[in-house]
Amino acid sequence: MTTPYAAMPLRPEHTFQRRLREPSACLSWAEGSLLASMAQSQASQNPDILSPDVLNQLLEMLDQSAFHSVQPIELNFSESPANGSPSNTIQISMDCITMREAEEPYTSQYTNLTLLNMDQNIQNGGSTSTSPYNNEHAQNNVTAPSPYAQPSSTFEALSPSPAIPSNTDYAGPHTFDVSFQQSSTAKSATWTYSTDLKKLYCQIAKTCPIQIKVLTNPPQGAVIRAMPVYKKAEHVTEVVKRCPNHELSREFNDGQIAPPSHLIRVEGNSHAQYVEDSITGRQSVLVPYEPPQVGTEFTTILYNFMCNSSCVGGMNRRPILIIVTLETRDGQVLGRRCFEARICACPGRDRKADEDSIRKQHVTDGSKSSEANYRQGTHGMPVSSIKRKRSTDDEVLYLPIKGREIYEILVKIKESLELMQFLPQHTIESYRQQQQSLLQKHLLRARLRSELLEPAACEQKRRCSSS
Fold first, then answer.
1. Which residues fall within 8 angstroms of residue 131, CB to CB, at 6 or more apart?
2. How confident is the model over 101-143, as pLDDT tens digits?
3. Which pLDDT does position 396 carry in this prediction?
4. DSSP 8-state class, residue 157
5. Cβ count within 10 A of residue 109
6. What is the mean pLDDT of the chain?
7. CA-CA distance, 189 to 352, in Å (whole number)?
8. Which residue pairs from 33-37 have beta carbons closer than 8 angstroms and sit at least 24 positions apart in sequence?
């Protein structure tokens, strides 16, 4: 019989003498029952029933060459403490025992051993056991690597994701793109997206649909990953998580499969997987890529953002970026899109404020650049001949306007007036003369038309009066 367990030589006479001394503790149930019945029937006739000769005769009756136990035999080896050292006990399970007659020359027979939770290497000299914590024993035994073992190389512990994720847009081989539906800037809007700023404004725990589009289908098993990172360089190494207040609160957490510390959740997709990198600690959510349905160009994913940007202990008013990537099942990036996100109570109001601020900044920058260009000369004229109208009033006034269309018209008027200050005087005069000539032509045409229509009108009046 061959087994994958270790083997040790066994001396039959030594082992069974120990069995004869303690039959109830060392023999199996089959041997114990047979010996007990023999002892009861022959105790009065033969007092030496348990001698080695009687045992050999008994074994020859069962098998001329060997004895095979039906059940595994449990053996307990115990060594007495010597010189105050602690005792050593080993429990083993024996599969098969083979014994030879006493007159034959001794040949070591091997017994297959199964040890409990450790391997023992027992030498032929006796039953001396080796401690499982012995270094020499550990070197002589080859064991399978544990799944919990620490990596032997530093490179084995590296995370597949970089320490600082890239936020550069990358269409990739499948022309990966992320877009948003047409959104409103009303105060009642739960989310809105600014195309000019590439920034998403949304309320906490509200549904925000994001459209995924590719021109060619990605490989089978591709996934969409959404990961938040801080925008500024001084914060980019930190992991974006929810604040302790929202993380420990029962609101938005009860009955959710998503970990409470994750900022981004996926709504309406049971295949969403929430991942936390074991090395960098960055958190993200994965969903399998699904091709668009018939008659559509986009695949829509519903995201929820579970903490406000102003929460203390969390983002704490630090701007964040949402990196959406198309990846293969083994983590290879096939496309990347990035946009800024702000989770707030009134998305429409905050979007208007940011757009107005950036528009004013653009007007200021445009005025400065125009002034710099005219300083270099316009139409070949020297700078000294350019007369500029400078306003002596530096007061800034604000005018509330109702309606975005009217607001856009007034902004254009304002920009035109500001740019006029940097135009040369002769350009302004020529523009006014051109407008004056156009006006005169228009008036002349109107006068001629009236003169031509006046006789016809008089004739019509005369006919009406005669009738």
1. 88, 137
2. 444 444 444 344 443 344 444 344 444 444 444 444 444 444 4
3. 77
4. G
5. 16
6. 74
7. 13
8. 34/58
Q: How far apart are CA 158 and CA 160, in angstroms?
A: 7
Residue 224 phi, psi dihedral angles, 5° rounding: -110, 120
pTM summary value: 0.49
Least confidently predicted of 29-43, 118-132, 211-225: 118-132
**Which residue's structure tokens are 């002349």?**
444
Question: E strands, 312-373, where?
Answer: 320-327, 333-343
- Higher-pLDDT residue of 76 and 412 is 412
Nearest alpha-carbon partner for 58 in 3, 108, 19, 112: 19
223's tokens: 């996934």
Q: What CA–CA distance (Å, rounded) separates 438 from 306?
A: 61
Q: How far apart are the C-alpha atoms of 428 and 425, rounded to whole Å?
A: 5
Residue 324 has pLDDT above 70, yes or no: yes
Size of the chain in residues: 467
Report strand pairing: 333-343 vs 199-202: parallel
pLDDT band for 90, please (50, 70, 90 cuts): low
What would the two tokens of residue 235 be?
């914060």
Please tell me the distance from the alpha carbon of residue 422 to that of residue 358, in angstroms, as a whole number: 22
One DSSP character per residue, 404-447 reads HHHHHHHHHHHHHHHHHTTS-HHHHHHHHHHHHHHHHHHHHHHH
| 316 φ/ψ sector (left φ>0, alpha ψ -120 to 50, else beta) | left
* pLDDT at residue 403, rounded to an integer: 86
Tokens 């081989």 sit at which residue? 173
